[in-house]
């Protein structure tokens, strides 16, 4: 019954999820077991790259859930992603212990440089993994709750909401750039050593993180499917299409939006938390408004309102980005801009919509 | 009022703040023992100096079918906005039954409590099927967590099927609502009101843009609803009003100009002057 609802009725989703699971099984084998000389060997670089893409796909899911299904365009989801990343970064920093450059048993290197005497209160507890996980979910969730409550209660919608979410992530970026904030300022958090006792430089740890990201993506996808196929999912779609009608049907539109926004922010935070140990650094640049806009482009390119379209979009746009930034870095921003215009004008339903169109045509002829 | 007066007012010994009042209880508790189910008294609304409603008084009896007519700008839609909580009046009171003060409730609670509204332009959820449209509107627990984990109960589904038959859309139940004809969309919206089990139905221009046959069908539908529900119809189409009306209220410049049977109203010289005689 539940499998029918979550998977079987959604062919595209099954294909995409199948591919994700296949990658999660094949890549570790090809990286760890196959000898380096073999043509099938997957390099460490590729593992890290794909792991990053998996996190981005989870992030794209969270954007698609509120934008594609509820019509709330958030241009500040990078803020939740980065906050989750900082939460994980703080845990990883605390694991360094006295192995930092200055060898202080408790303080981070940047705190020693700033002549701080003791650990700030908000760094307490992050030496424990469970506490860090809790904070990774709670802090972005709470921010989304307060922010969303204020915005939705005043019935801020559409482009106005998009603008204030941009402002939110921009404000956070400026705040995190400040050294006095105690998050490493400009340099952010880096030079991580180990996670849960495993050496972050080790091949097996990297593969482990890769698999964890794939699992998170699959679970996140199923959770989103559960929401959009429930009665609540239909309420959300109806809010997107006719908000006041939904209100006159007796639904408290604000609490639906708020609930979904908080859930989506937590999903983004999980993606951020998985991203940081794989790239080995988190700095305020992640809060940059441009990043948040890029996320929306992934979803638009893949096809909004289909969930699996978001995954397709995240992978394809990021693959293109990797390709172009190595090939000719200065053109990437132009290509991104052109892509957004092109998708909006020609492919309103994204790649997924295009594939569906081609398939239907094939069926007819 | 000076700040001092306001302070005195606030600290009066018998002051009753809103939060101290008992929560209004909807459903069976609607007290209609004196006849009317809806009391609209002395309501005034102004938008930037323009008086959309001007001391409007209106009483709707339980189970009545009432038609409201009036020229453009007479305040018909504003009146509906006030009753459903979309617009808050400057002065006056609106009571549902004798005890429930509608001016203190948010829109969704008024809707849950039994006042359904059909908009002028048919607004249905086009991306969903006809069945899903009705499912969304069906009276049930409408809190976030409940809708995440529960489907409709058997009784609610029965009611839904019943309404589907009543509005004549059973064959289209699993079609996308966006693909329906204009008339069918209007009926679907009326159906969406009905599954909410409302006590009062506010219907704004139900036959605009319908064919003759569709108009007839709608007239039959609305007259069959009166009795079980109170129905308030706002309409421009005089022939349609004549075919269903028992009692007609004429609005003009935000207040009631005349009230009575269609014949009485039609022969009222003031009404002829402002509206019918055109």
TrEMBL record, chain A:
Its main location: membrane. It holds the Pfam family BPD_transp_2. This is Amino acid/amide ABC transporter membrane protein 2, HAAT family. It is found in: Cell inner membrane. The chain crosses the membrane at residues 12-34, 41-60, 66-86, 129-152, 159-177, 207-228, 258-276, 296-320, 332-355. GO terms for molecular function: branched-chain amino acid transmembrane transporter activity. The keyword Transmembrane applies. Keywords: Cell membrane, Membrane, Transmembrane, Transmembrane helix. It is a multi-pass membrane protein. GO terms for cellular component: plasma membrane.
TrEMBL record, chain B:
It comes from Halopseudomonas bauzanensis. Residues 38-278 form the ABC transporter domain. PANTHER family: CONSERVED COMPONENT OF ABC TRANSPORTER FOR NATURAL AMINO ACIDS-RELATED (PTHR45772), HIGH-AFFINITY BRANCHED-CHAIN AMINO ACID TRANSPORT ATP-BINDING PROTEIN (PTHR45772:SF8). The lineage of its organism: Bacteria, Pseudomonadati, Pseudomonadota, Gammaproteobacteria, Pseudomonadales. SMART domains: AAA. This is Urea ABC transporter ATP-binding protein UrtD. Pfam families: ABC_tran, BCA_ABC_TP_C. One of its GO terms (molecular function) is ATP hydrolysis activity. Keywords: ATP-binding, Nucleotide-binding, Transport. GO terms for cellular component: plasma membrane. InterPro entries: AAA+_ATPase, ABC_AA/LPS_Transport, ABC_transporter-like_ATP-bd, ABC_transptr_urea_ATP-bd_UrtD, BCA_ABC_TP_C, P-loop_NTPase.
